[in-house]
């Protein structure tokens, strides 16, 4: 049986996926897990000059009373884990190695029912 928190997280990831597909991105993988961590969504999008870009998406959900915002919760430690998980994904899927990559964050604030997409949220 899943917890309320897990169900909310899954709903947030589905909302983020639907939003990104509506913005023209295509789903490659969801909930990619390895020892280094998890990548919520792996999408294929367009970068500058319409070049295909592999997008690693972190979905963060925060409710009323959270100590930090959803966006602020993607701190240096979380960024390092995402980078390691992305490297693992690329080792496991070498056909994506030639694509440029970026890290996006979808921040969901349940208190204000607001979704914020931050493309290229941090650099490796």
Automatic annotation (TrEMBL):
One Pfam family recorded for the sequence: UPF0102
Entry's Gene Ontology molecular function annotations: nucleic acid binding
SUPFAM superfamilies named in the record: Restriction endonuclease-like
InterPro entries: Restrct_endonuc-II-like, tRNA_endonuc-like_dom_sf, UPF0102_YraN-like
Origin: domain of life: Bacteria
Family of the protein in this entry: Belongs to the UPF0102 family.
HAMAP family: UPF0102 (MF_00048)
Record-given protein name: UPF0102 protein WM2015_2230
């Amino acid at each position: 049986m899943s917890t309320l928190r897990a169900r909310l997280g899954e709903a947030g990831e589905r909302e983020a996926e639907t939003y990104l597909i509506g913005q023209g991105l295509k789903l490659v993988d969801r909930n990619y897990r390895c020892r280094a961590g998890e990548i919520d969504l792996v999408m294929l999008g367009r970068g500058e000059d319409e070049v295909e870009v592999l997008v690693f998406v972190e979905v963060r959900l925060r409710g009323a009373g959270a100590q930090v915002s959803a966006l602020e919760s993607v701190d240096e430690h979380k960024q390092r884990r995402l980078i390691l998980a992305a490297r693992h994904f690329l080792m496991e899927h070498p056909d994506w190695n030639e694509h440029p990559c970026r890290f996006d964050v979808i921040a969901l604030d349940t208190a204000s029912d607001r979704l914020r997409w931050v493309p290229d949220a941090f650099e490796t």
